[in-house]
Structures
1.
Amino acid sequence: LQISGEAQELFSIRHGPVRAARILPAPQISAQKCDNFSEKRPLLGVCKSIGSSGTSPPYCCVDLYSLRTGEMVKSIQFKTPIYDLHCNKRILVVVLQEKIAAFDSCTFTKKFFVTSCYPCPGPNMNPIALGSRWLAYAENKLIRCHQSRGGACGDNIQSYTATVISAAKTIKTGLTMVGKVVTQLTGTLPSGATEEEILAHSNLRRSPLVPGIVTIIDTETVAEGQVLVSEDSDSDGIVAHFPAHEKPICCMAFNPSGMLLVTTDTLGHDFHVFQILTHPWSSSQSAVHHLYTLHRGETEAKVQDISFSHDCRWVVVSTLRGTSHVFPINPYGGQPCVRTHMSPRVVNRMSRFQKSAGLEEIEQELTSKQGGRCSPVPGLSSSPSGSPLHGKLNSQDTYNNFTNNNPGNPRLLPLPSLTVVLPLAQIKQPMTLGTITKRTGPYLFGAGCFSIKAPCKSKPAPQISPSKSVGGEFCVAAVFGSSRSWFANNSGLKREKDQSKQFVVESLYIISCYGSLVEHVLEPRPLSTAPKISDDTPLEMLTCPRASWTLVRTPQWNELQPPFNANHPLLLAADAVQYYQYLLAGLVPPGSPGPITRHESYDSLASDHSGQEDEEWLSQVEIVTHTGPHRRLWMGPQFQFKTIHPSGQTTVISSSSSVLQSHGPSDTPQPLLDFDTDDLDLNSLRIQPVRSEPVSMPGSPRPVSDRRGVSTVIDATS
């Protein structure tokens, strides 16, 4: 979709039924790893009913076509049908029934395979999520020795809504079970049940498989060959292994950074958002924080698509009924509110004032005194002093685990509290949008309603019946992107003028199986029923469809097949990406005129440096950490000031020093620091401020062992 709002068709081909197709991203290259197919890219991976060989059973081979030359560069055969293809810069993943096979993105040789996936009856027969480096899949059993800390915590939300939700769920599940038993007794099958579902249910009775378990593996460090999570296997390459749901997992997705994972089960009532905090040693040391439960509703629905905004503050989950649910989340957890979601940029978990004033700690103190349920520190409510902050100085450990995002180790307890979030908007796609003509421009909507200007040459809309939209199912997919309907709306205005009004959320594009693509504008705003608007006011959202493109093709249109000429947008994009990847890897891009003279652009990323360059570079860095005016950093309550005397006459001025109290009984104070008096000039200590040594850099000529004499003290509570 160009900036002007026109939709330009780039590539089209008729292959018969196609199950999956992906344009493969340019692979990551280095001096050791070069791309074997660089002249052929961009590549398209297709799984269609009749493979390249023609003899194999349907949907059993992946063909890789070059969009530059049009030839097929590789074909990978399988014995069983393929369900889906996923790809990133490192690997191409082929999803089969209860199996996953991964291939290197440079050579397309087999890297590893997984055979222990849990079968799912839903639209995704084998749900997986592929991030930039990690691969998550549904494991068919829980292995205790690999289990990570945390995971799904549905039962410990002690709030009224959660109790009501779980009660309603129990009733609903009971009713569904009764319905199934009745149909089994009468011998009739429900109309929605497919053969796979019936097979899956009969398998469940026989085998001791556990539903709802997720395993995340690191595609770089995992061993070649079969990946097996068992009691005997070591945890090489296993990042996390945890229970996510009680029912089988139906769909999952990573956010753009790859640290958050959203999972949904076959009921589709609640979706879980997990934060993955890894440990380099083993998956049992990793922590999985259950940050959010996104509550959709009490009716059953199958999830077909999950999409994140680029800043990870919005997640859209689409079900097979054609509805897309928009949820607000924060990458670090906590309740979404005006402060977090009404600014164009992501805000920190705590505002600057909260951080320096220590308000949150005082609040937590008070709630723990009143027996509040969210007190993360057990022993603090029985503080002997009246001051709420007095208990904080008792021991170092208590202080370290004082807040949920503690300055200590986030993988240790306590885990952050779980937040239940309801959708701010539910967007239903219209079944048909006007008539189909060969006009690529957008149809513009009136004030929030689906009024479409009739195009000039109108034909009757053909009855389209996509293979998947049988039985009331309606396939949609959603993605966030910058607005393309701007130009078509205000063709008279200048573009710069309109851009001054910065949108808080990107536009949401939803395409349906009928070929209609609709751009929706999302506008979050404070809750209109709130008495006064503050930072913590909850949100509501206005949505309106802005423009629509009809992208379905008629049989009379010509196909656009490669080979393409050099200024085709797909080839221009592929060339630009490849060029910069060569620069990042420190290599000379192919076709560039000789060695590049401006070598700083990629040399600074290479690993070979002399110490001279390093020091020179460091001295030119200028850092501004705050914009004024501010309360000075040392005015916060977490700082204390002490006077240091040389040993022999050690006295400590501050009576509430946590260093003393945590390292020994209060009646025998330990000396804070022993100075070697031979090395220390007492006069210089009193007159001049103590200067710390410069940080040792990798290339610095002076070894660390030479530095003597001056020691730096940092108080443990700061």
Note: The chain has 13 helices and 28 strands.
2.
Amino acid sequence: KNYYGGNWASFSFSGLLSWIKEKQQKTEVNDECEDWRKLILENEEVISLNNSDKTIEHVEDFCFDNQDSAEDVEEAGALSKLPPFATSGTEGAAQELEKETIPMENTLPEKAVSSDPASAAEGSETEITSECGSAHNAASGESASPVGKAEAAPSENPAQEPKKITYSQIVREGRRFNIDLVSKLLYSRGLLIDLLIKSNVSRYAEFKNATRVLAFREGKVEQVPCSRADVFNSKQLTMVEKRLLMKFLTFCLEYEQHPEEYQDYESRTFAEFLGTRKLTPSLQHFILHSIAMVSEADCSTLDGIQATRKFLQCLGRYGNTPFLFPLYGQGEIPQCFCRMCAVFGGIYCLRHSVQCLVVDKESGRCKAVLDHFGQRISANYFVVEDSFLSESTCKNVCYRQISRAVLITDQSILKTDSEQQVSILRMPPVERGQPAVCIIELCSSTMTCMKDTYLVHLTCPSTKTAREDLEPVVQKLFNLNTETEKETENEEVGKPRVLWAVYFNMRDSSGIDRSSYDRLPANVYVCSGPDSALGNDCAVRQAETVFQEMFPTEEFCPPPPNPEDTVYDEEEPASEESGLNNATEAKPESSPEEGGSEGAAAVEPEQ
């Protein structure tokens, strides 16, 4: 591949169009070394690998504006987003361009004060948050302000007509888009946030707090109160409902101390359990779809209570919702780990395919790989993403699928005074037997779309093609009429207009047992692509499991050494121009004087 992250990647708009074209044409990669099999010795055998990605299917894209007007339009800006291994000169030019075009914002708040029942361990929050805070604030001596204040946009009348955005504008401003192939949020107390802080990889990324949790009920979208203050300030709930909700949420936080209240319902669904708690239908809907975010049909009582507690425990750490989103998209996360890997000598090769695994016949262990140049690369352990394995190796594997859609719209699904909202909505099944759909709406301050547009991600487990699964939900929430078509139905008036959309199915290879793969050597480890869950816990657990199997006595992702503690030989005194020293000290917003060396540039994030 010529981009980082595989199916975890993010693309500019033009990059995504190229990716769509590649998937629709199903381009095969030609071998540059056609005689690579001649390089295999007599005591060796091979396990062939795929040279094309077969994890993406049913790709369909639609433009709801005049595409002819964009035929001669070029994407603005000559510099594209650079990989982590750029030289200091080109990176400096890229940063200078970004300063002129895209404003940077503060990241995690220094301390989010919350009076909700989920807030815990307040004394330690300042230390935890400061570790994950903005490097810009640390370098400049400024304290990060709460997300709600730092990112407040000028007040605007919700009834005001949205600005007309054309397809040619989207193409021209294509570099302002960072469109994720997989849509996820980070739980503020999830495994990934803990890992980012522990390993100090968090300094290479910035985050924005998700500002709203939404619900779809009785044909309209409404905001769900999350914290205690939100609950008691809510005009949607009666005073009795507020007390009932707070009582139930408090029980979920302490459910282990009161087993008698739920043990009789452990064999029943969470939805049935909620019906016994004297909760009104609207409260049951909020808890089931917007707080626990579980299936109404098959989620057990205990799983539902635990999901509710997880939501509550994540409240108040960085804001009034449990979720964070990385600026510039989810594709930043794998690149952040690449930067840390580069500091310690790791190499990430783009446009460098692998033909096969070379296996020793006597020991049965994999000893090397052959790349497309015929070069043999030896190692003791091999980690292979599932999509690289051939059909013969995966003949006994049964894959699930994920249905995905990405929309560019002209306004939010729930308009408020502030345009800068990051929202999550879990849409209940449109029909019986259909899965619920997770919708994440991103504003321009997440650095994932241009001003006056929103980027909307829809995700659900597949039952059909992505378009068949997700289009009914899109039709309920959005206006799919083109600019030339008249809105004949009243219900279309006021809905956000879709400017462009793409649907595709993605393979979900999570949860597959190793024994399902045929003839896999013991020292070859398989990792999956993205799963359909909202968080990243599955990927973190899998990475740690593989690491511990290879290196059982080593710590997983330990904190890097402090540059001040580095001991140098007398013959080679520490120098401020040392690549490793500067690479370890590098901050995302370091000044030219601090980050001007080539070593520092190797770990600077792309702007």
Note: Residues 381 and 487 are 60 Å apart (CA to CA).
3.
Amino acid sequence: LQVFDAEGKDVTPQPLFPSDPSAGKGKLLASRTCLGAPGSAQLSSFSLHPASGMNASVGSSSGINWSDLLTSPHSSDVQMRQEEREEELTEEDLDRRVDIYLTETATLWIMDMPSVVVSSEAEDAGRVLERNKLYVERCRSRGGNDGFVDKGMQTLSGASKSKDAQCDTVSRAEKGVMVTSWDLYDSLKGAEVEALSKAEGRRAMTGKSSRAKEHDQTPSVSCDTGSTISSLKTWESAALSRSQKEEESHAEAILTSAKLQQDLFYMERILMENIFQPKLAAYRQLPVLRDTNGTAAPMGEAEQEEDGKEKEDTEEQTEASVNPAAVSHLSETPEEIAPPGLELLWSYRCDLTSGQNVSSMAWNKVNPDLLAVGYGAFDFREQRKGLACCWSLKNPMWPERVFQCEHGITALDFSLASPNLLAVGMYDGSVSICDVRNCATTALLESSDSSNKHTAAVWQLKWLEQDRGGKGGGKKERLLCISADGRITEWLIQRRLDCTDLMAIKRIGSEEKMKTFPGEKERKSEALISPRAPGMCFDFHPKDTTIYLAGTEEGHIHRCSSLHSAQFLGTYRGHKAPVYKVAWNPLHTDLFLSCSADWSMILWHQDCQAPLFAFTSTPAVVQDIMWSPKSPFVFAAAKQSRGEVWDLNVSILEPVICWDDASPGGSFTSVLFAPNTQCLLLGDSKGDVRVLQLHNLPVPSSCRKVGCTRSSSAPA
């Protein structure tokens, strides 16, 4: 099918794809129908291929109305010729790819409603219309006019502002009601009483109305009866609410009464004794017996003596009633005893102390069952609020007293003259005094108002008794502490805390650097940031309380006197890192022990500035050490990896007991011997204080052997 216009030009639409020269000029879809036949007029093909140079509006560009052409085949303006050609399609033609291109048509506007800013009924509507007309005329006259110049302008967008609104949090509360059998009974009885009162009210109304009819009275009597019933109901409800309020107030008074609190306290003590009875008996070195029910019960002293007489021949009872004398006797034959060991009795921990670092521990000097534990981080980056808890053997699951502090606690100690006073040193340099007799969580005295307070962490403090001197005699107690600001101070406890400097720890080493050899020029002195050396620990001599040792961050240990604050009596050099603890031997007072961050522990003699022995078992920082109060050979150490017990009478190369069962992810930070029992306490960085019992550790009966051994080894 071919289409010609009035001038005879061929305007037939091009095919959808270029024809194959070998296939002739046939069309892919050829129509064999006659154009003149009514109802059979069709176009053989219609292409929108861009190569044909035609688009969807071909009819309008050539002046031909395609709709008229299709509906009026006999039009005189268009000549159409129909050629019948047979199209032969091969498999290649069928498999060939056909490209169809779709283009966007013109937009058809169905409705256009321009925006209106000013209402037509407004007063200035006419003026706005005139301005709009002038603007339209100016836009029309803009083209070709030299009076208009195109210029660009940049408009800055307004800065956005974010606004937040703060509101109170929605408080939610869960409430529950417990229904008991008597509550159900009271509710049932109340419903029965209400139903009975309603029935009596109806009966009274019926009787009144019948009497009114008989006596020809007015119905005002029934109204009076109704008001009487309503007042009766009101009185019943008021009485019921009053009784409930009285019961609630009575129950609240019972719960808040001092008698109930005391009874609950005694009940708690009884339960704790029942739960921890075997452990407490082992702690106090009492035999544990089993009764008929299988539960453990302690033996009294009289029963223990009788039982020892009756079962003196049995081997088990002999092992249970062993005493220190027997242990010292058996120490001569070590092959017959079991090796020393530790047994876990219990741990002091609760939700308050979970995750807190145990920084220091101290026993009460009058009540040996009361333990004070300080919680605070050693590192500046891990600082948070500190805790001071007083634990009792009668309740290992919750502390008896809890004192909240604004900063981490680094040291604490109980007073001997006033056992209820607990001194606390903190990381920011402040010192507080707490009264354990009161249930208050705040301190009794604080050093925040003192103008001479410490400016760095208080690493150790101690209550010390000294002779008053003079004719009066007696002893006085002093509170001393050492701080990282290089000062050793004495605190005066009056209406407020105030301190005086006992010693300013000077740095040493600058004088050594200034020494010159012969023929060498004199060197300039190096400027120091601070002339004071940070103090880390101190300990006073057990016999002469005017002599004390001070360990510094430089690794030096100074022997000082409280009578001479201007200079040191001597300096011991042996550590290469900060000294964390120094401790005099309580039984052999010429020896003292020190530990440091250089992984070592060193035994010193006060008359020799060279170390006697250096102990290093594992490459780990030694956080704390303590001598045993019963043996001059035994001391304990708290390392980051484990706790150790050394017996110098057995070996000086390795500890006799090791305990490496720390909390997951934690390390041991402090160690403390129990004063009256064979037990050891280990604190870690996760807030746990483990109470461990020492087994098969010999205790010498006298310390005369110590003096002979150490005096002979001192020159070495």
Note: The two ends are 127 Å apart (CA to CA).
